[in-house]
Amino acid sequence: MTAPPPGLPEASPDVAGELAHEQAHVDRVYAELEKATLRAADVEADGLARGRTSRTGDVRDEEMTGLFERDALVYAAARRRSMIEKQYEGLVFGRLDLGGEHSTAAEREVRYIGRLGVRDDDYEPLVIDWRAPAASAFYRATPVDPMGVLRRRVLRCKGSTVVGAEDDLMVPEAPADLVVLGDGALIAALTRTRGRQMRDIVATIQRDQDEAIRAPSRGVTEITGGPGTGKTVVALHRAAYLLYSERRRFENGGILVVGPSAAYTAYIERVLPSLGEESVALRALGDLVDGMTATRLDPPEVAAIKGSLRIRRLLSRMTSRAPAGAPTTLRAFVGGHAVRLDDHALRRIRSDVLRGHQHNLATDAARSALAEAAWRSVRQGERDAFLDAFDASRDVDEFMASWWRQLDARELLLGLAETDHVYAVSRGVLDHEEGAAVAYSYREALELGSWSVSDAALVDDLVARLGPVQDTDREDVGFYDIEELDDLSSWGVMDVRAGVDRRAVADPSVGIITPTDARERLMAGRIDRPSGYAHVLVDEAQDLSPMQWRMLARRGRSASWTVVGDAAQSSWSDLAEAGRARDEAFTGQERRAFHMPTNYRNAREIFDYARDVILPLVPDADIPEAVRETGVDPVDRVVDGSLVETAADAVDQLLGEVEGSIAVITARRWQERMAGLDGSGDGRVQVIDPLSAKGLEWDATVVVDPDAVAEESPGGVRVLYVVLTRAAHRMHVLRPA
Fold first, then answer.
1. pLDDT per residue over 420-458, tens digit each?
2. Collapsing DSSP states into helix, strand and coil, what is residue 536?
């Protein structure tokens, strides 16, 4: 009899024999995988050879064809090799035995399930890709509806070594020759420790989860459920399934996966590549605008202002006004005639042009409208001759460079750092206290050199109104010498080439802030039109503000959607307003809903504690059923002494009780004092704020000052509910006396 794989505990003869049998099949699969790697290398070499040519001089058509074939083959081979390498760990994870209840071994069909399909030299399948229809029974079969399955087996592997197996029997009695191992794959998976990154769950997907994963691709698929129900992982597996089932559509159009924070995206970034998919854009809300990164969170009262649709009235006023410092009168000598247009005329021209154009794309239209107004004010001589002279006028060039200069959306937002300017553009929209809070938030941005997550949606809205900044052609610089422009820009003259006003204007009435290194960081990079996607997946959707929904809608105008959320965990207060913006983003598409009723993450003792916190205040909260018990209740302590020392003691205790990761989730007021715990325990401990903990999970948590968590958070007790449901096995709650 073959010995069990190294590291496997002493096993019964039946168990050892079953694992040895599975090991033999896995060995065969990896042998075929090595062949596939060599074949990919051969294809790559062949592709490179096709691109070689002995001709010199002009490139001929045949050479171009050879280069194209080379690039296509090399790309395909490299991609295949990369996919094989990523699937090496735990490639084979499942087995199905199909047949009648009284079938013999010879009559049964055996299917092995894995991360990608593998065939032998005769093209017979050794492993079926988990997304293929032939693998669906692995996830959908139940004792009520076995779908022809006798036994479902989940294999646990380390690399290419089988170290264990768990079976689910789908019939009342197993045939005499069918060995059944373990206590069930799902519970075994739940007892494993959490790491810094999310694990995929392809081996333990349950039927209700699988139905959501394989739902039709068109329209809107909504996945709801309370904490720990696997919503996020189901949604990510759905993205991988869509790419598998309709690769051309979704690979060409792209899939956008949006999460609440950078910590969240770092946590889940391993899941999709591990399933064989890399053609997915994974973004946090603060990274949705290309060329802009935002991780800082505004205070709740400021985030509420920036996220509400009423802020659009303020943004509209900002884009309809002349740029800061623009002239209010046009005076020019054109074709022998003195031209003068006053402020009223200029404002009317601007308003007329902006009715049908975006500012940054309307320079020519604005100049034409200006010329017509100038002609009407003169009406002497030939009209065409006057318009030609107007177009060639350097006085007009100088005027247009300031009056209708290119506007960067970020520049307009930074203008809100001046309180008087905020009051001027927000009259009737914000009260004085709200206006002052907004102005302070942008002064803070200039001081720190960082945008807030809420700012991304405002920049996106402004870009939609203004259009992207247009490059100014070198010849448009006119009579200025390029080197002179470098000198002039340092003295407060607009940089014509970049189309960005870099003036250091001290007059606060125009809302321009003196440039600093922080300002340069805020304005770095180019912001263009947003990319569109074929599918948009939104996690923690209950947290999105109305303005963030509008930002997403611009990227999903022609997209299908997967939307994941739980209203009871919302950190956005006005769910009705967000709901209207959300419905508008979906543009009337068909919607289907899937509800996840079972909490797989939290031990029952932990979830019962969290449930008792949320239900008195949110009686209609979606409360799932926790399926696992540890026999250990959460520790709830009132701390008379040092909260930091008590938290450190709690961390030390938990390091001895769990093998995996531990989070110290602390109210903002304690964040700096708890920072010394971050990275302790050989990197197993992480200190994190409540909102960044959204969507994440750890083996154990220490929750510091829960009352302050609720008080500081925009969602109040709903955010505390999130914090209390992050732990899988152990939780300590520390309250200052």
1. 999 999 999 999 999 999 999 999 999 999 999 999 999
2. strand
Q: What is the DSSP letter of 522?
A: H
Of 165, 135, 170, 139, nearest in space to 153 by CA: 165
Q: How far apart are CA 315 and CA 320, in angstroms?
A: 9
CA quadruple 134, 136, 138, 144: dihedral, nearest 10? -120
**Is residue 639 domain-resident?**
yes
CA 733/CA 701 separation, integer angstroms:
8
Give domain status of residue 500, yes or no. no
Domain residues for 677?
604-736
Cα–Cα separations (whole angstroms), residue 45 to 31, 50, 70, 121:
21, 9, 9, 21
What's at 446, amino acid-wise? L
Assigned token pair, 728: 């899988």
pTM value is 0.73
DSSP 138: H
Q: CA geometry: angle at 431 spanning 429 and 434, to 5°?
A: 100
Q: Cα(114)–Cα(136) distance, rounded to whole angstroms?
A: 12
* CA distances, 726 to each of 201, 229, 603, 686 (Å): 18, 12, 11, 13
692-719 per-position pLDDT tens digit: 898 889 999 999 999 999 988 878 899 9
Take residue 537 and report the two structure tokens written for it.
């997946």
Q: How long, in residues, is the chain?
A: 737
Q: Are residues 548 and 589 in the same domain?
A: yes
Sign of the CA dihedral with 207 first, then 210, 214, and 220 last: positive
Number of domains in the chain: 3
- Helices 363-378 and 343-354 pack at an angle, to 10 degrees, of 140
